[in-house]
Design brief:
- The protein is about 35% helix and about 35% strand.
- It has about 160 residues and is α+β, with helices and mostly antiparallel strands.
- The protein folds into two domains: about 5-125, Small Protein B, Chain: A (Beta Barrel); about 125-155.
- Strand 4 and strand 5 form a beta hairpin.
- It is globular.
Length: about 160
């Protein structure tokens, strides 16, 4: 069976601010017109995070814009949304986050076989010097590729 993935939103800032150690998939508990809004691609994951409260996982800070034709059925765009994962998985993640001082950050929202899913990253925060080092590596790689391309063009 072929899985159909339809990306709605990605959190590019997460890759800039954190080292992503592992990724996990979780379902999202949505209400009413939020699904229609997501299908239109109206979601923002910037500055969002996940927390575990009494054995349940919640996503905070996710902005899903109100549906255009939703009238009174629209919900608060920044409400806390429950994530659907197995209890065993939640407990393991909670233990890891508490012991090692890591963060659970939403990386993307997508539809998989018609159901809204979220990709979570177990992340470690980057320091400013880490960000500069990564930027320097990217810059060096770009210049090398540019020079290789120029040499290839000039040799032919």
């Amino acid at each position: 069976m072929k899985e159909e993935l339809n990306k709605v939103a990605t959190n590019k800032k997460a890759y800039h601010d954190y080292f992503v150690l592992e990724t996990y998939e979780a379902g999202i508990e949505l209400k009413g017109t939020e699904v229609k809004s997501l299908r239109q691609g109206k979601a923002n994951l910037k500055d969002s995070w996940c927390s575990v409260v009494e054995g349940e996982m919640f996503a905070n800070g996710i902005h899903i814009s109100p549906y255009d034709h939703g009238n009174r059925f629209n919900t608060d765009p920044r409400r806390v949304r429950k994530l659907l994962m197995h209890k065993r998985e939640i407990r393991r993640l909670y233990g890891t986050v508490k012991q090692q001082g890591l963060s659970l950050i939403p990386l993307s929202i997508y539809f998989k076989n018609g159901r809204a899913k979220m990709e979570l990253g177990l992340c470690k925060g980057k320091k400013n010097y880490d960000k500069r080092a990564v930027e320097a590596q990217k810059s060096a790689k770009r210049t090398m590729e540019k020079e290789m391309k120029q040499k290839f063009v000039s040799s032919h």
